[in-house]
Design a protein that fits this description.
Elements (H helix, E strand, L loop, with lengths): L2 E5 L5 H14 L5 E5 L6 H5 L2 E4 L8 H11 L2 E5 L6 H6 L1 H5 L4 E2 L4 H8 L1 H10 L17 E5 L9 E3 L7 H4 L4 E5 L6 E10 L5 E13 L2 E7 L4 H8 L8 E10 L5 E7 L6 H6 L4 H10 L15 E3 L15
Parallel strand pairs: 1-2, 1-4, 2-3, 4-5
Antiparallel strand pairs: 6-7, 6-8, 9-10, 9-12, 10-11, 11-14, 12-13
Length: about 325
């Protein structure tokens, strides 16, 4: 069994640890590597079995550098983690496959639909899932939400409660979508961690309620198997082009059986450690499917009402830890 690489690892130390745990069960000699533009300053890189430096994703040498390092480190599986690297890695999937390296990534068309929230709405409508109503920016009704069609981590999202808050810069910004305000009194927000096999079929689905969010990522959450679980399993059981871990964002009615689709992100979400702790073993799925070439069967064996309370922790280093 070869080694596994997690790119743009950043602060995803828990994700790295879950891959290390699952890899060691199958092949104790296998290693989990990480890569970053500044890996020595990454907590996830510090808990991995090894790390290396990469150019920025926008650098012309990014793919060449990534491939060279993968060959040197005997990498057989690459797991991307951030939005900005998805398209370029999807376009390079065949290049790496020809060198016996699998990039676990959705196809370019699916990624493009996910990255542009206007097209994400089209996907939800095809799945017969309601989306927030689009508000006419020239005849707005308040309150309303504005958000960039290509944003992530809740960046650029604003709640406007009155006409006075609708400035000319907001109104004339072509990147902003004007959308219906979803009342948190009536709806809870959920992230769905879903796993899709190589043939785009759903193999596991875990809803986790976003009890508290910090910096766009869940800080307090609970896995829940509500009425919506089987509805979602049916509606998203096949997603053309979807591969690996896909995170969906939904608003779900507290008192009425209502489901509103918000976003689709074709990568591991920041709150995935809660789903892993609940029994959704996606690192194990990836190892079995891509490295051991085994079929992954649908798994319903995850624990509901498991709670995650995140906190800040430290990795303390000495000067010698920064010597290359």
């Amino acid at each position: 069994m070869g080694n596994i690489l997690i790119t743009s690892a950043g602060r995803r130390a828990s994700l790295v640890k879950s891959f290390k745990e699952e890899a060691k069960k199958i092949s104790p000699e296998s290693k989990i590597f990480t890569a970053e533009a500044n890996p020595e300053w990454s907590s996830a890189c510090r808990v991995s079995d090894g790390f290396f430096r990469l150019p920025r994703i926008t650098d012309d040498n990014y793919i060449d550098s990534l491939l060279k390092n993968c060959l040197q480190k005997n990498i057989s599986l690459i797991v991307p983690t951030i939005d900005t690297e998805l398209s370029i890695l999807a376009e390079s999937k065949t290049l790496f496959k020809n060198r016996n390296i699998d990039i676990v990534i959705s196809d370019t068309e699916f990624i493009a639909f996910c990255r542009d929230k206007r097209n994400t709405n089209v996907l939800f409508e095809k799945l017969d899932i309601r989306i927030p109503a689009i508000i006419d920016r020239d005849r707005p009704s308040f309150p309303l939400f504005v958000k960039p069609y290509d944003g992530s981590l809740s960046q650029g999202i604003q709640l406007l409660v009155s006409q006075d808050e609708l400035t000319e810069s907001i109104k004339n910004n072509p990147k902003l979508m004007f959308m219906e305000y979803i009342d948190p009194v009536k709806f809870d927000e959920y992230t769905i961690d879903a796993y899709y096999d190589k043939n785009n079929h759903l193999k596991c689905l875990v809803p986790r309620r976003r009890v508290e969010v910090r910096g766009g990522e869940i800080s307090k959450g609970r896995t829940e198997r509500g009425w919506f679980y089987h509805v979602l399993c049916d509606k998203i059981k096949y997603m053309k082009g979807a591969v690996g871990c896909i995170t969906f964002q939904f608003f779900i009615g507290k008192h009425e059986e209502e489901l509103i689709g918000i976003e689709i992100n074709p990568r591991f979400g920041g709150g995935y450690p809660l789903s892993y702790a609940a029994g959704a073993n996606y690192p194990g799925f990836l190892i079995r499917e891509y490295i051991l070439h085994q079929e992954v069967k649908f798994s319903d064996e995850w624990v509901s009402d498991r709670v995650m309370l995140r906190y800040d922790a430290e990795i303390i280093l000495d000067q010698n830890d920064f010597i290359n």
